[in-house]
Amino acid sequence: MKAVFIACDQAHHEDVLTLLTHFNCRGYTAFGQVTGRGSQTGDPHLGSHAWPAMNEAILTVVDADLVPRLLEALRALDERSDQLGLRAFVWSVEATV
């Protein structure tokens, strides 16, 4: 099992959920409003007067064999709207309850 952490502009919310549904990733946790700034490009998303955009984060745990296809779909979504920003990170899951 792998944990996939997705940080993205809130405008991606519905599209990310559509991808998770498409890949049968039923379980996830969404963190509604998070702030941040990309490490290489893009504007900060701080929810302030100067930087009003906001991010969100979604964490899902999926079978390891699904990860490459999910990441490719997320990459394609990011490339369609590269000014919004979307990043995904993958960790190994040691155990679940």
Automatic annotation (TrEMBL):
InterPro entries: N-reg_PII, N-reg_PII-like_a/b, N-reg_PII/ATP_PRibTrfase_C. GO terms for biological process: regulation of nitrogen utilization. One of its GO terms (molecular function) is enzyme regulator activity. Gene3D superfamilies: 3.30.70.120. It comes from the Bacteria. NCBIfam families: PG0541_fam. This is Nitrogen regulatory protein P-II.
